[in-house]
User: Which sequence fits this backbone?
């Protein structure tokens, strides 16, 4: 593979530096166990772990097989000292103690909620690979598909996604949960406002359930819109993941 492709493939986005900062502030040990949910083709968290010098165990839950194969290849290169396990299942089908071994230091996800809402409606595991191939364009067929999704289906998907996260947190009992759901440029360009809003709705649901420790002055000043605390859930647990 040409060197310029490798460099582009493993480039580090600004958001990864924000993730690294939050991981450090939440005392993630470099040899700990982390579960990442639904990265798709994005390596933001993997890059943050690489910057962090992570050498522990990383479980990646990714139901899209093509995306899972891609992210496994990337993570093996950028996290050579870590042990990578790919769990190619939807989050709701993951079986703790079988698919994932505890204890879990951190449950993390970058912009997962709108994807999970849509996945609960569309129910095609490789949907996101097909969508990725289209880039910022949206085909006529895809536009018709989105137009046919009624508000009731979005509401059901939002509820199902929030419940999936709550149940998973209860089952795996991580020491902390860190998730982001900031405005997506791609969704904005495609005009997918309802999908974008569905992600915000899940985030608000979870922030109303768990005590969020990320406050206004922590990160907003350095990282622009993506660092705004409105778009983040950072919850640390001692014994039980609820108030």
Assistant:
């Amino acid at each position: 593979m040409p060197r310029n492709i490798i460099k582009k493939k493993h480039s580090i986005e600004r958001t990864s530096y924000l993730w690294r900062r939050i991981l450090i502030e939440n005392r993630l040990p470099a040899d700990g166990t982390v579960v990442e949910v639904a990265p798709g083709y994005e390596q933001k968290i993997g890059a943050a772990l690489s910057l962090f010098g992570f050498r522990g165990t990383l479980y990646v839950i990714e139901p899209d097989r093509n995306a899972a194969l891609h992210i496994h290849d990337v993570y093996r290169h950028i996290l050579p000292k870590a042990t990578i396990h790919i769990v190619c299942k939807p989050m709701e089908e993951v079986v703790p103690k079988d698919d994932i071994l505890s204890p879990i230091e951190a449950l993390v996800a970058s912009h997962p909620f709108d994807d999970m809402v849509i996945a609960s409606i569309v129910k095609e595991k490789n949907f996101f690979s097909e969508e990725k191939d289209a880039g910022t364009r949206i085909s006529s067929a895809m536009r018709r598909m989105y137009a046919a999704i009624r508000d009731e289906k979005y509401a059901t998907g939002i509820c199902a996604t929030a419940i999936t996260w709550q149940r998973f947190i209860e089952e795996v009992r991580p020491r902390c949960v860190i998730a982001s759901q900031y405005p997506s440029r791609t969704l904005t360009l495609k005009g997918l406002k309802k999908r974008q809003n569905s992600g915000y709705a899940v985030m608000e649901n979870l922030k109303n359930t768990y005590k969020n420790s990320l406050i206004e002055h922590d990160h907003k000043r350095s990282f622009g819109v993506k660092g705004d605390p409105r778009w983040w859930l950072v919850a640390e647990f001692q014994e039980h993941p609820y108030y």
Notes: The chain has one domain: 11-236. Strands lie at 33-37, 57-61, 83-87, 106-110, 176-180, 232-236.
